[in-house]
Predict the 3D structure of the following.
Amino acid sequence: MNEIKVDHVTKKYGKKVVLNDLNITLNYPSITGLIGRNGSGKTTLLNMLIGYKKPSSGVIKVFGENPFDSLFVSTNTLFVDDRMQIPNTLNLNEILIEMGRFYPNWDEQLASKLFNYFDLPPNSLHQNLSKGKKSIFNMIVGLSAYAYFTVFDEPMTGMDEAVRKDMYRALLKNYLEKPRIMIISSHHLKEVEYLLENLILLDEGSIVFDGDIEAFRNYAVGLTGKVGKLEKWAETKDLLYHERVAIDDAYVVIKNNVSQAELDLYSQKQSPVETRDLLIYLTNKRRGVIDDVFKTDEIESSK
Amino acid sequence: MMSSKQMKLSQVNEWDVIKQSTVYKLKVYNHIFYSLFIYQLIGFLFVINSTSGTGMSMGSLIINLEYKTAHALFYITLIWLIISSAQLGLKQSRSLMSGVVTNNKTHCFSNGLLILLMSVIGAVTIVLLSMTAELFLYLFNTPYSTDFSINYFLELLSAFLYLLLAGNLAYFITNLVMRLKLIAYLFLFILFISSLIPEISPITYFYYFLFKEMNIFLFIIKISLLIVLLFIGSLAITRQMEVER
């Protein structure tokens, strides 16, 4: 009843498949990171979870209900992003008052404290704020509403480093105060990683990884060893990345489903893979690497 | 640890959300009401500065009748209401509500309430300005006689019903064009073609059905029925609408 379930959901725009046969479960309470490159389908998925869009096929249940056009789901959810619709005829203070009338768990005191801390001008219009200040205001709304299901889609856009740090801390404290279902969608895994309990990695509309963040950290292993021996063996495994690091040395990244004895046999050094790099390796599999773009030119210029 | 902090899912009453949304929209769309002031000021100036007239002659006797009417006030308020109601039917209007608790049904009902309120305010201000114009002409001892209705209640009622009908029609057509473009264009095309032959034109039927009705009670029933049908139509069109942001 209190969870969110996505069952074989596909979303198409015309003939273009934006999301392909997704299966996801979000339990209460949890903070899940929805990570993916541009155009991976993150926002489309969030739009369907929040009830703005309908899936082309499959079933979505949010708190046991179809979220599309559901007033019950709307009451218990909030979507914070840089396209959040804030009227330009009300000033910031008036908007906070209005939000308080709509959201049953609205914490006026918290909104006011955050508003003062981040030094927002109460009489300004949202449209007159800088990009960073707009994001701060949207975050204040997201945190103060204490919606049972809160979605933050790239919430820190335009914020400077110090504010981002404060805001992530505020988000974590807010969650610990009242644990609920939160999704944080971002391109920057490194930045949000320490907040997350679970991670969903989307690439070109499909799920590449769905599990807890610790499992993602241990998903792959980096190996350094002799070119011939290591590369040949790695090709028989789930190879995610490889490069030559010296004349006869290679560095490979493979899925961490190999015994320690085998790793010791074929590599000289084993190292953990940074989650940020792993994200790139997993989503580059289909695209290749940027060097591939220049390969033809190099061949032609050498002719 | 969790039990003390356990959050509960909130239930809301649909009618409460409709009321909240209406109040919210009244604040968000406050410019609509400011524009009414401008529109009616123009209408008022029309009323006191323009004359309508008719003339006839019998032999050497020529009679010219010139009079002032409050029609300009009504028409200009009608234009205001049509524009404002159409604005509520735009996709941007629905997107704007995505920031707060809402769904298509509560959005449509709160728009309906807003159109109702605009019609009341429009009708009341028409009557009040008509009275003001009458007083104005009396004080300045204008030589023209006026035809302002003595029965202000009937004037108020008919103005309100016509405004409400026009507002709902504008809201319905905007929704139709926004969501069912093909059907909307087909509908308007058929309407245009049929209007070339007045005998079979739906506009002619509509005109006789409504505007030629002499019985006030039948008129109220007919116009109310049309308003309800248009609103149900708008509700049906917007029911499956996705939110564009």
Q: What stands out?
A: The beta strands of chain B are 52-58, 61-68, 145-146. Chain B has one domain: 14-49+64-179+213-238. Chain B is about 70% helix and 5% strand. Residues 44 and 129 of chain B are 7 Å apart (CA to CA).
